[in-house]
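Encode chain A's predicted structure.
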Amino acid sequence: MTVRLPIAPAAPPASTSDVSAVLLQVGDLARETGKSIRALHLYEELELLRPQSRSKGGFRLYGNDSVRRIKWIGHLQELGFSLGDIQGLARDFESSAVAPAAMARVHEQYAIKLSATREQIARLRELETDLEKSLAYLQACDVCEPATVLHACTTCDHHDCHDPMPDLVAGLHAS
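Encoded structure for chain A:
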C-alpha cells in the first residue's frame, strides 16, 4: 500500500496549486518510478535529487517534480549518459547565471548524443540486414539431408551461388 503524506513543503509553494501537493516517502517514490531505494539515495548523494522536506520522523519526502527528475535521469541513462555525465549536465545547468547559456550547454550535449544515437541506429540497421540475410540463407538448411556432414555446408548447392554466404554464417566455418 502506498502511503502518501500530505505535508506542507519546507519552502513556500510557487503557486497555490502546490499547496495541495502530495509528498512521497522514498519507498513510495521507488515504487512509483521503478527505481530501487538505493538508486534514489545514490541520486541524492550525487545531488541529482533532493527531498522537498522531511517528515516529523525524519523521513525524506519527495514531490511530483522528483518523479519527473527520476524519469529524466532514466531517459538520459538509456541514451548512454553515465550518472557522472548527468551530474555534470545538471551542475552546469544549475550553475549558469543566465538561461540562454544554460540551454546552450544542454543543447550542445543533446546534439552530441543525437549524433551518436544516429550512428548507433545505422550500425543496428546493418546488423538487422545481416541477420535477415543469414536467416534467409539458413532457411535452405531445412531441406538438407540429415546425414550431410558439417564441412559440406561450405559447398552446399541449396543456395544461390551468386549470393555470397553472409558473414554471420561464414564465420561459423572459419577456423
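The beta strands are 4-5, 23-25, 53-54, 60-62.
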